[in-house]
């Protein structure tokens, strides 16, 4: 199993902390990036691709300082266009033929949260929080009969669904699904 961590974004809502990449924010003396790597290793995942963009030299320096040779970076120079472009930048990992854990880099969580991705017989999994504060900021996942019918910040007017929650930003994809996802992300007609 391989991991992709999306860490290219700017983090405009961080106020005084806005100059540094979100994954380098520290809590309890450890950065989010360091926590992600430790939590993945606790789940026996050491092959990690980190998609960087905004202030990438700081993130690449932090990776070197952490001494994790198995963490590779790929660059999304168009990081202001959103996560979909970061997924395009990781397309080789998505089509590697291996199962993938896909994660947003700006999430503070306990190891048990990521372990929850592996404690179900369901092949392709995601985590979401039903106890979220409504509004335009949370990315929502809406389900109808166990299938995703909405995955964005604003729910379509009149959408029928039976369950809804805020996306935690963690997904586990079997290799076939990862390859299908890779096919969805295109950067122009020839690619």
Question: Your description of this structure?
Answer:
The chain contains six helices and ten strands. With 191 residues, it is α/β, with parallel strands linked by helices. It folds into two domains: 2-124 and 174-184, Alpha-Beta Complex (Spore Coat Polysaccharide Biosynthesis Protein SpsA, Chain A), CATH 3.90.550.10; 127-168, no CATH class. Strands 1, 4, 5, 6, 7, 8, 9 and 10 form an eight-stranded mixed β-sheet that branches. A hairpin with a 2-residue loop joins β8 and β9 (147-152). It starts with a strand and ends in a 7-residue tail after the last helix.
Q: Which key phrases capture this entry?
A:
Spore Coat Polysaccharide Biosynthesis Protein SpsA, Chain A, alpha/beta, 191 residues, globular, two-stranded antiparallel ribbon
Could you give a quick summary of the protein structure above?
With 191 residues, the chain is of the alpha/beta class. It has helices at residues 32-42, 56-66, 83-89, 91-94, 111-115, 175-184; strands at residues 2-7, 26-27, 30-31, 47-52, 71-75, 100-104, 125-129, 140-144, 147-152, 163-173. The chain has 2 domains: 2-124 and 174-184, Alpha-Beta Complex (Spore Coat Polysaccharide Biosynthesis Protein SpsA, Chain A), CATH 3.90.550.10; 127-168, no CATH class.
């Amino acid at each position: 199993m391989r991991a992709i961590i999306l860490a290219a974004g700017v983090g405009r809502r961080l106020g005084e902390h806005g100059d540094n990449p979100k994954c380098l924010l520290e809590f309890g003396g450890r950065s989010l990036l360091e926590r992600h790597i430790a939590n993945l290793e606790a789940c026996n995942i050491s092959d990690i691709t980190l998609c960087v963009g905004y202030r990438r030299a700081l993130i690449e320096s932090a990776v070197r300082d952490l001494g994790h040779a198995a963490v590779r970076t790929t660059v999304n120079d168009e990081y202001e266009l959103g996560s979909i472009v970061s997924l395009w930048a990781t397309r080789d990992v998505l089509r590697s033929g291996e199962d993938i854990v896909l994660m947003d880099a700006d999430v503070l969580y306990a190891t048990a949260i990521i372990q929850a991705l592996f404690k179900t017989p369901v092949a392709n999994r995601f985590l979401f929080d039903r106890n979220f504060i409504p509004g335009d900021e949370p990315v929502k996942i809406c389900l109808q009969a166990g299938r995703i019918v909405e995955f964005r910040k604003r729910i379509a007017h009149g959408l029928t669904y039976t369950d809804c929650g805020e996306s935690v930003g963690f997904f586990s994809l079997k290799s076939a699904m990862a390859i299908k996802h890779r096919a969805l992300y295109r950067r122009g007609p020839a690619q």
